[in-house]
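User: Let's play a game. I give you a shape written as tokens, and you guess the letters that built it. Ready? Here's round one.
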């Protein structure tokens, strides 16, 4: 039993301890009230970004943004504090200052601002938001968004009439074949800086420009004859390589010896040969009623034409034609020429040959696949009679029809004016629809065909769209799409002229997504521009080629009306 004194002492000790504890707790509470613990920023992420109303994902790009009116909306996953923006963590590259105009009346989780300064035309800028603390939140990951400003709309050259512009384009483009032709053979170099390498398809397209150049006053008739004699005489030499009368894809312009196009492609190329013969027969029609010298040149053309053994390329009598033959590899490549593509002219000329003609059965079975070339589907509301879906690259509508007149051309399989017009309009409508959101594509910038691309070459089409526009596609389509082609010509010349207009007219191709502009010129892309613009203007080359009586007989044999 405790004594009263011990109980009192114990009670007093407990009380003191309690009071001391209470005082400490009160002091701590007061201290916490005066110095509250820091509030940690909430983790956040960006839900969406709009640049001038166009949504863009991190790492993505927005094209053709107005240089003087750019508004950016950033929606965060939580509320932000717009009064404490750290410009070191939110900025735009390429010299844009941080004095944005913050827009009011947006939600608490949205930052909207307008860039004050006018930016440079056609320049890539990057909006970056770094991870870490800013605006009262902690951004978990970094984000970046690219935008490219619009092209400078100021005309790069004085405005001239459309008629004068067409003549200018023809003159400059023809000069590739005139001034840059191989000095010995007179044939067209395959491309700029190809030195000794000349090409037969491109040369055929190029010589079709000679009647145009004479009629337009670029050269004289005598100059045209001199050039044609150089070409024809060179090819008539026994030392110039020919294979059963056919020419190779490439040749050395000085020696006349084949330059292999590939390992087994060191002999005849029947498609290139046909493109060249189409050109020769067109020039022959132009000069055939001329003076003695002109008639002599035409007789030499006739010999080259008659020497082509079209039936040899049936490969032992098969009901089809084959593209290649090599003296070293024979038929190793074994590529059948069958439609629908650029090669209709091969079968027309083979049927028209006065010395080695094929039969209609070869055309029906080999080219038309007994009707297998038909399509009949509708794309953008346009019916496509033949070929692959969406038509393929636009050179299908050009190469065979530089001389072969499609305006009234029909047979069992198609109306060829409808075919080519539909093809060109589908290509145009695809670029207007622009499903891949490529920079610049639209009513003024269209045309997918074979051309150079960055570091390579491809046959662009709606089913193989790499963002590259080739001016030859729209310009060589003038007969089929005169309004749409003129819109493209205005854009190419006046808007992009400082980037793609050069010594021989328009450079081969461009990609506005990448800011890439080819410096190259290719004979097979240059030639159709001159010829098809002239066919649109006067029908000159169509009229000349279709005069040939052998061609007329060949078309009738194959069941064509024209």
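Assistant: Ready! My guess for every position:
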């Amino acid at each position: 039993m405790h004594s009263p004194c011990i109980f009192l002492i114990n009670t007093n000790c407990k009380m003191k301890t309690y009071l001391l504890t209470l005082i400490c707790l009160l002091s701590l509470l007061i201290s916490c009230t005066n110095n509250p613990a820091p509030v940690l920023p909430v983790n956040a992420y960006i839900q969406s970004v709009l640049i001038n109303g166009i949504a863009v994902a991190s790492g993505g790009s927005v094209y053709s943004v107005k240089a003087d009116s750019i508004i950016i909306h950033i929606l965060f996953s939580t509320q932000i504090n717009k009064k404490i923006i750290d410009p070191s963590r939110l900025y735009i590259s390429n010299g844009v200052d941080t004095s944005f105009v913050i827009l009011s009346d947006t939600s608490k989780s949205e930052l909207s601002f307008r860039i004050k300064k006018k930016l440079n035309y056609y320049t890539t800028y990057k909006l970056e938001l770094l991870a870490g603390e800013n605006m009262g939140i902690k951004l978990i990951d970094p984000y970046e968004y690219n935008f490219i400003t619009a092209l400078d709309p100021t005309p790069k050259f004085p405005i001239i009439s459309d008629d004068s512009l067409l003549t200018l384009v023809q003159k400059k483009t023809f000069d590739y074949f005139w001034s840059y032709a191989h000095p010995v053979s007179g044939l067209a170099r395959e491309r700029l800086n190809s030195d000794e390498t000349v090409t037969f398809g491109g040369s055929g397209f190029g010589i079709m420009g000679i009647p145009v150049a004479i009629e337009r006053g670029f050269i004289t008739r005598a100059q045209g004859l001199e050039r044609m004699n150089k070409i024809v005489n060179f090819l008539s030499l026994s030392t110039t390589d020919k294979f059963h009368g056919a020419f190779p894809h490439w040749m050395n312009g000085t020696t006349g010896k084949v330059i292999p196009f590939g390992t087994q492609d060191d002999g005849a190329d029947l498609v290139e040969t046909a493109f060249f013969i189409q050109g020769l027969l067109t020039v022959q029609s132009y000069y055939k009623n001329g003076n003695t010298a002109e008639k002599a040149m035409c007789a030499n053309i006739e010999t080259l034409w008659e020497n082509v053994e079209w039936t040899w390329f049936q490969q032992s009598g098969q009901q089809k034609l084959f593209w290649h033959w090599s003296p070293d590899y024979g038929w190793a490549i074994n590529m059948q020429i069958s439609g629908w593509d650029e090669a209709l002219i091969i079968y027309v000329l083979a049927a028209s040959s006065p010395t080695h003609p094929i039969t209609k059965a070869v055309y029906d079975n080999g080219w038309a696949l007994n009707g297998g070339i038909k399509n009949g589907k509708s794309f953008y509301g346009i019916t496509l009679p033949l070929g692959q879906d969406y038509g393929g690259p636009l050179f299908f509508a050009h190469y065979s029809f530089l001389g072969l007149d499609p305006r009234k051309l029909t047979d069992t399989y198609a109306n060829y004016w409808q075919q080519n017009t539909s093809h060109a309009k589908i290509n145009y409508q695809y670029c207007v629809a622009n499903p891949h959101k490529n920079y610049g594509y639209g009513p003024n910038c269209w045309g997918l065909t074979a051309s150079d691309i960055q570091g390579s070459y491809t046959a662009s089409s709606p089913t193989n769209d790499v963002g590259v526009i080739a001016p030859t596609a729209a310009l060589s389509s003038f007969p089929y799409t005169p309004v749409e082609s003129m819109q493209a010509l205005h854009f190419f010349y006046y808007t992009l002229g400082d980037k793609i207009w050069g010594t021989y007219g328009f450079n081969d191709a461009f990609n506005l997504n990448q800011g890439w502009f080819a410096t190259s010129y290719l004979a097979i892309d240059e030639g159709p521009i001159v010829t098809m613009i002239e066919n649109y203007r006067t029908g000159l080359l169509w009229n000349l080629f279709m005069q040939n009586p052998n061609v007329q007989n060949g078309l009738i044999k194959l069941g064509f009306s024209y």
